[in-house]
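Reproducibility note. Readers wishing to regenerate the assembly model reported in the main text can use the exact inputs given here. Chain order matters: entities are listed in the order in which they were concatenated for prediction.
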Amino acid sequence: MNGNFVYSNPTKLYFGDNAISFLSEELRNYGPKVMLCYGGGSIKKNGIYDDVIRILKDAGKTIIEDPGVMSNPTTDKLMEGARLARENDIDLILAVGGGSTIDYAKGVSVSAWCKDDPWDKYYIRMEDVDNRVIPVGSVLTMVGTGSEMNGGSVITNTQQKLKIGMVFGDNVMPKFAILNPKYTFTVPRYQMVAGIYDIFNHICEQYFSGDDDNTSDYISEGLMRSVIHASRIAVKNPQDYEARSNLMWCASWALNTLIGKGKSGDWMVHMIGQAVGAYTDATHGMTLAAVSLPYYRHIIQGGLEKFARFAQAVWGIDTSKMSVQQAAEAGLEALENWMKEIGVVMSLRELGTTEDMLDGIADATFLLDGGYKVLTRDEVIQILKEAL
Ligand code: NZQ
Ligand code: ZN
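Running the prediction on these inputs yields the following structure tokens for the assembly.
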């Protein structure tokens, strides 16, 4: 393991089909005013809303509802939520939903008492939080982002056409997360598959970077194999508890900083995908899927040995009679076949991207230097064209 690091994760997870029963216990740690954040209404249809409301009422909490958190939450919604939290002097923000709702809750948590413009301070300048923070708890209903156990908060500024992920520290990360795999049974197939690819890509973003002998990579290979195995069962039978529970557990560990230890981290698929999201409002996991193969084929030479290892260790390909180049390419071919098998979107056009958007998307792509190749803007354009 290279590098010096601190590993700490303050989020307490309650996992399993009775996980919600622990919510009342957790609520004792917070004051009476709870802001209940949720999305477009799926929790009202599947009964999760009723479960949560009953527990909040039994605990004697005053509930301030904040519905309508959209996928790819916006700065406008964030400012509205921050005002609501401040005016009601909220003690706990309870996010019930997927990554969008939890990311938004973290944004509200730091913005409610922020004297500056929170978008500029936290998402553009990425400054440390120096104002009062409202604690966040979550009930996860959609698996993929890992937001339930990390500090990430991705917000879209529709006016500026920017989608930016800020990573907050321990004090903003959810204090607790309720993980009931059954709560994910009603997630539409398109979202389920997008979430599966999101998990997989979070692992890739960390795995395909640096190249020392690193325990993180061995953990990553195990997680990737588990995601592939569970995904094949889940796409055939979305009600398979074991598969959905494995996916849920993998998602949390894929992006809670553990497998990033000792790694520089690539994250360019996410940078390009987020820029696509800012222009199209497309589903996050699908934006990643559409750009991944053109990106990895573009950078493959910089990480040939690692892509060859990926073929053997993750996909079980017998690479013994192949050259390193052939093995590396076989790994990406296996990835492509699996993506098609589970049914992710393979082109940007399917997500509403048009040629006239490409310059803007390239401008909105942050160029990072942790992967096998530092891209130029022209290379981003080339990748986008191939992904179209
Ligand atoms: O709005 P509702 O009605 O809740 O419907 C949602 C939404 O339409 C639906 N859904 C969620 N749970 C459901 C359900 N429908 C039926 N039954 C259920 N149990 O699913 C749709 C997608 O939900 P959303 O929260 O938007 O999806 P996801 O969890 O993929 O979150 C995406 C957001 O997270 C960000 C993305 O960029 C995007 O903005 N990310 C956050 C990260 C982090 N915090 O670390 C990292 C990721 O890379 C990602 O960037
Ligand atoms: Zn992601």
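We highlight two features of this model. The radius of gyration is 20 Å. Residues 145, 198, 202, 270, 284 surround zinc ion (ligand 2) (CB under 6 Å).
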